Amino acid sequence: MDIKNITIKQAHELLMSKKMSVLELVESVLKIAEGIHNLNAYLEIFDDVQKQVEVAQKMIDEGNAVLLTGIPFAMKDNILIKGHTASASSKMLEHYVATYDAGVTKKLRDAGAIFIGRTNMDEFAMGGSTETSAFGVTKNPHDITRVPGGSSGGSAAVVAAGAALGALGTDTGGSIRQPASFCGVVGLKPTYGSVSRSGLMAMASSLDQAGPFAKTVEDAEIIFDCIKGHDPMDSTSYPDDFLKREFKKPKVIGVPTEFVRAKGVDPRVLKNFEETLESMKKEGYEVREISLPALSHSLAVYYILMPAEVSSNLARFDGVRYGYHAEGTNLLGDYLRSRGEGFGREVRRRILLGTYVLSSGYYDAYYGRACLAREILKRDLVEAFKEVDLIATPTAPTPAFKIGEKTSDPLQMYLADIFTVPVNIAGVPAISIPSGFVEEGNAKIPLGVQFIAPHFEEDVLFTVGKDFERCVQN
């Protein structure tokens, strides 16, 4: 059996028919995980897997299984799992052990999923390549000289390599969708507030959202259906009955052509995107050009709002209460040394930038104006969705780049988020689906297409995603 490419749905059917036990499935996946040490995708394989297997197998034997029972899962290193280290890939929290389960962790645990390990990430989710981790760079399974994307690069890499059947990541400005594109897997960023943020280490609270990585759109839907829902522990979590509506099959895809053809987009990405649109036309969809001028300002808005929230959220790591501590000559010296040594360069850069835009004299000029621009972008998207059912763009402007290629130029790294950040600013859902490959030497490097839907319309994304997968397979 090809365990590397088996889907959650296929594994569930095998487990339910008793053609495979949970132990056999998990051991097969762990064997693959052991063989990808060179990718540095897993920071830790958990030592309590056997106990989890026994619980899951009992659920199956007693007829209490659901679709995710017994399914091996990987978890990003900033999602709390009680009793396990959660470091956010930072020296600051290298020895922090979670004292409770995150909301999404609890839902997966109740479903009988098997947590097999925690995955590498950009430090505190700040980066787009998984190169800022305090514990080394993660490599792309398709070409180990290239990045897997970020910040959830470890989660994307293990799913692509077959070392987990599903994984969770977090998405603040594209941190699920961009690595999904780079690694050739499906990545979903849900509607803000549809999935609990309780137990997720906050980077930018108004932008962060947990979501799944999977091999197929159907598997991503299975995971989303498990983790979604109201959580009283999260004040930004929407009630379960919020915006209930009748499903309407999507027919019209909007393309912000002027934005998509922005400077810096790889011609091969554009060619692949055009082919994607043609294949969707064959599936019966109408493709319509739309104008969204506010999108051109989204990157600037994001890189004001996000650092501002980073500055606030990371103020708690002061070397006194918990986390990395370094002795100074006085209390201020403790703060300076602990934060200077505990945080990496990219984290310090964003804290400085965020503190500046929030400072007296600059708050209105930068942060205040960014908040106004955010509302304009939201309004423009709402208006666009009156004309079209969803919006399509490439997921990233380039294929996966070489390790070290952009680390010396932060602005070039930030430009990789051009197609993904508008989604987080507006809080709408989006999905990245593999759309083909480009040749780079002897390697085939994946590309992805992004579909964006109105708030709480993930079902529209799953419908169009399955249609796209079907036409690609044919």
UniProtKB/TrEMBL annotation:
Presence of the UniProt keyword tRNA processing in the record: no
Xref: Gene3D superfamilies: Amidase signature (AS) domain
GO molecular function annotation: ATP binding; glutaminyl-tRNA synthase (glutamine-hydrolyzing) activity
Any one GO BP annotation for this protein: translation
GO cellular component, one term: glutamyl-tRNA(Gln) amidotransferase complex
Record: active site: K76, S151, S175
UniProt keyword terms in alphabetical order: ATP-binding, Ligase, Nucleotide-binding, Protein biosynthesis
EC numbers: 6.3.5.7
Top EC class, one word: ligase
Family per similarity comment: Belongs to the amidase family. GatA subfamily.
Protein name, as recorded: Glutamyl-tRNA(Gln) amidotransferase subunit A
Organism: Candidatus Nomurabacteria bacterium CG1_02_43_90
Gene: gatA
